[in-house]
Amino acid sequence: FGQDDSHWDNVVKKQIGFPEALPVKDTKFVVSGNQAAVQMDPVVAYPNAGFENWRASNNNYPAELAVDGPGTIVFQDSVVKHSGNYSIRLENTKIHSRIYTPLITVEPFRTYQFSVWLKTANFSAPSAIQTAVYGYDADGSNSRRVYENFAGNGMGSASVLATQDWQEYKITFDSLDKTRIVIYLAANISATGQLWFDDAVLT
Q: Pick from 47, 69, 46: which is nearest to 58 by CA?
């Protein structure tokens, strides 16, 4: 076409709007003989992932997690659950209606996947159901949002209805330059009806 490749690369990027790739840094390799294999990062996990453990002092407060309004917004549910003995239920939500983890140690500039099962019953604001991930420095300072999505935008995979049976939702996020994260499940809006979470997985 009479132009060098770099010209057409720039044209394509401008026309299609390719996003800039996220960096992967400091990947570790193990060398054996004449081969090098990627060294796996330490295993990460969502604490109390099946919502099976609850505080002895308050059976509406899940162990290893923090919540808003235990016993008024957030409840233990032994009847409606995806698996195991319990799920966690939110109802009559308010502006702050969150389930969130303590600080979880991660590797910087790594890609992680989080999934959770969700069920709703006559929930009046399904598009406000939210997953968010905030990153922090090692000492817990300098927070930065590394992922946020709402059910109206698919929670990473599909839309959420006001009433629906259990469905799994998955998101993928990059830790960027952070070494600790907090994962939020929330419906930060005044709404009627109920929603349940169960079987969260972080990898």
A: 69
